[in-house]
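testing teh design pipeline on a random one, pls ignore if ur not involved
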């Protein structure tokens, strides 16, 4: 009977707004009768952390992966689209607009002081709109706040149109044959496209590993919190119709992906893993062929699925199209563990937004 300890401090949505050392570490201890996957430690105790501790006398099984969670089938398998790049540009535009607005408000606030000491001012006159008077400068600056909103609305409408067209004309999945692989070794295989529409130009293939969000109910349980009560630091309150038990931690609801059709399980946009590393990329023509991909940088364990810790590997086929933006085919992988314990303190963290996932 081997005793296992899982410890995790997973980066929440927009993790750059948080100090990791001030967030709690979720911990779960349990026993397993039989062979188990080896232990590993990713990150550090004072930062983001994913750790599996196994008894020294435990019998190791390098092909043990656990039960695959529903998030793999619903959010990381099949065809996916990439959101309109306007989403990311509009978000950047908002930041600049807010800075300009704050500078203008400060300028209007200090205008009387500038005039009292003889410094000429501009834009401080009044403009009547309807029944109210507004500073002339505000009439110029305030519309800047609405431009990114209009851009996001237009991008969402364009994304919905692309989704409808794609779902009505979804291509056949590619045929992929893979050899067995252990973490830290290259991945070898062969890909063949069953069909190649006229607007397809070329394809590239890569693979990556990452940590999926822990199940929300397990996070609450490990921290001895009531699921219907106040969430722990870093987690948001549960929103209706956006979260399913065991799917994820629920922190990116409504913000991690652009507007998508809710009748499609998991949506058609591929969400990035917030802890993730990519291997090499192999460029192929539309005729496909054999490939060999070098492993991601750093040491990583093989697949491991539980409620708290979910180490996931996947193969991503990137198809460049003339119209409609790139197309992605995602295939989950089963990668075996290494015999030695994995330690990797250098983790790459993403904010969790779909448009930030660059392949």
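output:
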């Amino acid at each position: 009977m081997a005793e296992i300890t899982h410890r995790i401090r997973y980066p929440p949505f927009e993790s750059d707004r948080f100090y990791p050392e001030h967030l709690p570490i979720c911990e779960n201890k349990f026993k397993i009768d039989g062979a188990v996957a080896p232990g590993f430690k990713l990150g550090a105790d004072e930062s983001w952390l994913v750790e599996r501790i196994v008894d020294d006398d435990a019998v190791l099984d390098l092909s043990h992966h656990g039960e695959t969670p529903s998030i793999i089938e619903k959010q990381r398998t099949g065809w996916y689209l990439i959101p309109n790049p306007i989403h990311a540009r509009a978000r950047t535009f908002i930041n600049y607009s807010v800075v300009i607005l704050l500078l203008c408000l400060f300028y209007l606030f200090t205008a009387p002081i500038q005039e009292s000491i003889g410094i000429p001012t501009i834009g401080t006159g009044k403009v009547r709109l309807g029944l109210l008077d507004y500073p002339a400068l505000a009439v110029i600056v305030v519309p800047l706040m609405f431009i990114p909103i209009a851009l996001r609305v237009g991008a969402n409408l364009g994304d919905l149109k692309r989704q409808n067209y794609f779902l009505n004309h979804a291509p056949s999945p590619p045929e992929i044959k893979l050899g067995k692989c252990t973490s830290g070794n290259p991945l070898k295989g062969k890909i063949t496209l069953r069909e190649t529409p006229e607007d397809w130009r070329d394809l590239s293939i890569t693979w990556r590993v990452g940590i999926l969000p822990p199940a929300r109910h397990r996070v609450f349980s490990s921290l001895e919190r009531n699921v219907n009560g106040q969430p722990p630091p870093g987690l948001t309150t549960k929103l209706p119709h956006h979260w399913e038990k065991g799917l994820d931690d629920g922190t990116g609801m409504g913000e991690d992906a652009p507007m998508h059709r809710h009748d499609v399980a998991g949506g058609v946009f591929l969400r990035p893993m917030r802890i993730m590393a990519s291997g090499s990329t192999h460029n192929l023509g539309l005729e496909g062929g054999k490939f060999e991909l070098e492993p991601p940088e750093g040491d990583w364990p093989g697949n491991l699925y539980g409620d708290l810790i979910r180490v996931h590997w996947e193969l991503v086929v990137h198809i460049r199209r003339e119209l409609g933006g790139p197309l992605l085919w995602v295939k989950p992988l089963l990668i075996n563990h290494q015999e030695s314990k994995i330690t990797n303190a250098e983790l790459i963290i993403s904010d969790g937004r779909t448009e930030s996932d660059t392949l």
